[in-house]
Amino acid sequence: MTVYISQKEYDSFTNKLADFEKDREKLQRTLGKIMENSGSFASKTPGFNETEDQIKILNKKIIDVKNLLGQSIIIKDLSKLKKDEITIYSLITTVDINNKKIKYYIQHDSLDNKKDFVIITPLSPVGQGLMGKKTGDEIEIVIPRGNLKLKVINIEKKFL
């Protein structure tokens, strides 16, 4: 599966991968010290299981980021994306059933926060519900708090 990604996000994920790998190395050294000092009962030593669990979590994150980067094509020109359809790097203006405007921006990394819109990923429930929709479409998205009913009123393509 091809994943379109901006250079900024690609660089951000590359930096995260390096950080994850450094953190894993530190945890592996810690685990080694625990094992060295505890002999054959390492798993009963305080900190062993927690450290091992943290390494497993980091290993999954490393695999996920490597997979994303391996499938990525850096996109520099948004004209390659469909203009009339919600895709990655779309700023979408919607209205809910109470006629309240809600703006969403779709990118791969949802850690940034903006005041005038919500950043979501394409794989989040709202992101999945919006992807492929067009101006005028009405959608209902199942989210943990209940159902979210939206109407798409505008789509813009932009890099943040």
Description:
The chain has 160 residues and is an alpha/beta fold. The protein folds into two domains: 3-74, Helix Hairpins, CATH 1.10.287; 78-157, Roll (Chitinase A, domain 3). The chain is 39% helix and 25% strand. The chain contains three helices and seven strands. The protein has helices at residues 7-38, 48-71, 125-130, and strands at 3-5, 72-74, 90-96, 101-106, 118-120, 138-143, 146-157. It has a five-stranded mixed β-sheet. Strand 3 and strand 4 (101-106) form a beta hairpin. Helix 1 runs antiparallel to helix 2. The longest helix is centred in the N-terminal third of the chain and has 32 residues, at 7-38. The chain is elongated and about 65 Å long. The mean pLDDT is 90.
Can you list the strand order of the major beta sheet? Answer: 5-4-3-7-6
Order of helices and strands: EHHEEEEHEE
Helix proportion? 25-40%
* Low-pLDDT segments, ≥5 res: none
Tally of discrete structural domains? 2
What is the general shape? Answer: elongated
Count all strands and give the number: 7
Distance between the termini: 24 Å
Q: State the CATH architecture of the largest domain.
A: Roll
CATH secondary-structure class of the largest domain: Alpha Beta
CATH superfamily of the largest domain: Transcription elongation factor, GreA/GreB, C-terminal domain
The gyration radius over C-alpha positions equals: 21 Å
Mean pLDDT: 90
